[in-house]
Amino acid sequence: MTHDPALARPRRGRVLAAVAAALVAAAGALVPATAAHAEPRVSITVADRPELGAVADSTYLTEVVVSGSGFQSIRNGFGGIYVLFGWADGSWRPSQGGTTGSDYRYVYDDETNPVGYQLFVTFPGSSTAYAANGGTIAEDGSWSATMRIPGPRFQAYDRSGNISEVDCLQVQCGIMTIGAHGVINANNESFTPISFQEIYSAADGRQVISQTGSSAPVAVAPQSIGGRPAIIPASRTEAELETAADGGVTAKVGRTRLTVTVPGAAPDAWLGVSLHSDPIFAGWYSPSSQGVIDVDLPENLPPGEHRVVIVDANDALLGWAGFEWGGLPDATETAAPVETSGAAPQSEAPPGDAAPEWLVVAAIAAGVLAVLAIAAFVVVLVRTRRPRAAALPNASDKEQ
Amino acid sequence: MSALGVRRIELPTPLDRGEVAVRCGGLRVELGGAAILHGVDLTVRAGELVVLVGPNGAGKSTLLGALAGDVEAVGEIELAGRPLADWSIQELARRRGVLPQQNSLAFPFTVRAVVEMGRAPWRRTEREDEDDEAVAEAMRRTDVEPFAERTYPSLSGGERARSSLARIVAQRAGIVMLDEPTAALDIRHQEEVLRLARERADDGDAVIAVLHDLSLAAGYADIVALLDGGRIAAIGAPSEVLTAERVSAVYQYPVTVIPHPVSGTPVVLPHRDARTAEIHERAVAP
């Protein structure tokens, strides 16, 4: 007869070790700090103009490369995420009760001939993966796909079929991600603002897409939307920057963000941020009362020495600072809180996204508690067994 | 790991037959500055099939949307005795299923996948165990099995309507709201959809449906609510509500109402003039 370890009666010591191991595993599962996904984060660049981040053309169809990181990837999970372009109010998140048509409105695709206004990015191994036009959420929580933004104006429908028009030159639009197939997943909800500017000219032979019922004349991008400038700052040459004053600007590199301090910047001002030396426009930011902004570093920023360049709303240079970037962290290395969401619409992301200290403390405390619980359990187990062991000598130690 | 929080979601308790499932009082809705509903009172109980009828623009779909929580409304709305505003979206999805008038899908999901989506509210709950059975039963009952592996955008209007209905049936939410579920269907499938709604009600669900076909409504409903200009003009048993005089007045078109020769339920026949009859006679003459 062969020896099957699963069938052999283990010694008591082995039972206790197994119980202890199970308890440690259980305690580990209760500690949120080990979650493999971080805060969902989306970066957007114009497909043929990688130097332009989070913008779309105010007249013509724009193809953008949308890349996510920090998303929850569930192997064989049902669905994945839908990636949509549209408007969202402050309470749009489905996990917080937001409903389509009233809290968020997005561009529909033609269901018989979809052109890529909406993406479905699938979980690996989902039963509906065949329908994914946006690829797969990799196990490290990243994904990337090309998507189309028809223009700044579109028609949306609510669940009762009522039509409303959205004008992204009047309201803040952006890219939304939500759980697909009706599966609400707060971990995968995000909103990334998009601003509209003149990127292409008629000479580029671009398509003008009418997404509205009326044949309204093609819109001209305003100079600002809700105060946020809608211009793309002019690129400065390295030589220009070398001779320009740095304005006392300092930059501190975080995990996925750059914390920039611009001395004297008023909280109601708008600061345009570009990253050099291959200039990438990273968007317009409104500083804190201390002149601090947190800049999301674009996915396509290569590791190495860089310079962050700050201009005001009139594209006048305010200053610059050098920084070194080691690349985006591997999602599996991050110890981030299991937060419900990414940046809220029309608001800046909270500063600093490293794991907060309380979480580290909580994780250690949970570990200590688990060890104490196991110790107590072992003591109780040993004590309750002792009388029996005494009454039946060797019974518990007897091999089969 | 169920002990560690996967299955701790509180599930809705099933409603007893006769218990109030949906109630609204003084319900008002404005859309784009225009008043669509002017103070509607309605009570729907578990085990009842209530059909909302009325001319175009009477507010039927808006009323259904407001009761579903999809349309913003002023006034009282309660679901299972609790104000609608107190329900989270997940809780709502486990309590009521809604079939909207339009079902648009941008991705080529198969019919089977669409029906499986109806089970999303029960993920990570103990009722997840019913998934396979609920999907299979819903597909059988709505006759979508023959095209279960086809993609939704490739279907005809009637096939789509039945696939969407199958998703709602698979949801098993206890309160079912159907907005024109028969609009694209042939006679057989119209009757089957209403029979299905009838059976859901007989099994204890509360079913509210918007219909245009008055005879179909009269043939299956416990209660018909006739809406006119954002108000309920009449509500009650089909034979009480659907009188020739009232229907003619509300629809502004003369009708005759006769009892169905087999079931005895009211059949509403619009008047057609002599010339129409003449054309008809010529068409059918040998």
What's this, in brief?
The complex is a heterodimer of chains A (400) and B (286). Chain A has 3 helices and 21 strands. Chain A is an alpha+beta fold.
Explain what this protein looks like in three dimensions.
The complex is a heterodimer of chains A (400) and B (286). The model of chain A is unreliable at 1-35, 213-223, 331-361 and 381-400 (pLDDT under 50). Chain A is of the alpha+beta class. In chain A, helix 1 runs antiparallel to helix 3. In chain A, the strands form six sheets. In chain A, strands 3, 5, 6, 7, 11 and 12 form a six-stranded mixed beta sheet that branches. Chain A has a four-stranded antiparallel beta sheet with strand order 2-1-4-8, with no helix packed on it. In chain A, strands 18-17-20-21 form a four-stranded antiparallel beta sheet, with no helix packed on it. Chain A has helices at residues 12-30, 238-243, 357-391, and strands at 41-46, 49-53, 55-57, 62-69, 80-88, 104-106, 119-122, 143-149, 153-157, 163-167, 173-179, 190-197, 224-225, 228-229, 250-253, 257-261, 271-276, 280-285, 292-296, 304-311, 317-325. Chain A folds into three domains: 15-36 and 353-388; 41-228, Immunoglobulin-like, CATH 2.60.40.230; 238-325, Sandwich (Immunoglobulin-like). In chain A, a hairpin with a 2-residue loop joins strand 13 and strand 14. Chain B is of the alpha/beta class and 286 residues long. In chain B, 33% of the residues lie in helices and 26% in strands. Chain B has ten helices and twelve strands. Chain B has helices at 60-68, 89-95, 111-117, 131-141, 157-171, 187-202, 214-220, 238-241, 244-251, 274-284, and strands at residues 20-31, 34-45, 49-53, 74-79, 82-83, 96-99, 175-179, 206-210, 223-228, 231-236, 255-259, 266-270. In chain B, the strands form three sheets. Chain B has a six-stranded mixed beta sheet, sandwiched between helices. Chain B has a four-stranded antiparallel beta sheet with strand order 2-1-4-5, with helices on one face. In chain B, strands 11-12 form a two-stranded antiparallel ribbon. In chain B, a hairpin with a 2-residue loop joins strand 9 (223-228) and strand 10 (231-236). In chain B, helix 3 (111-117) packs parallel to helix 5 (157-171) and helix 4 packs antiparallel against helix 5. Mean pLDDT of chain B is 91; it is low at 1-6. The A-B interface holds A 26, 29-30, 78-79, 94-95, 97-99, 101-102, 108-112, 114, 117-118, 120, 127-128, 130-133, 157-162, 181-184 and B 1, 4, 31, 61-62, 64-65, 68-72, 88-90, 93, 98, 100-102, 104-110, 113, 116-118, 120-121, 123, 151-153, 179.
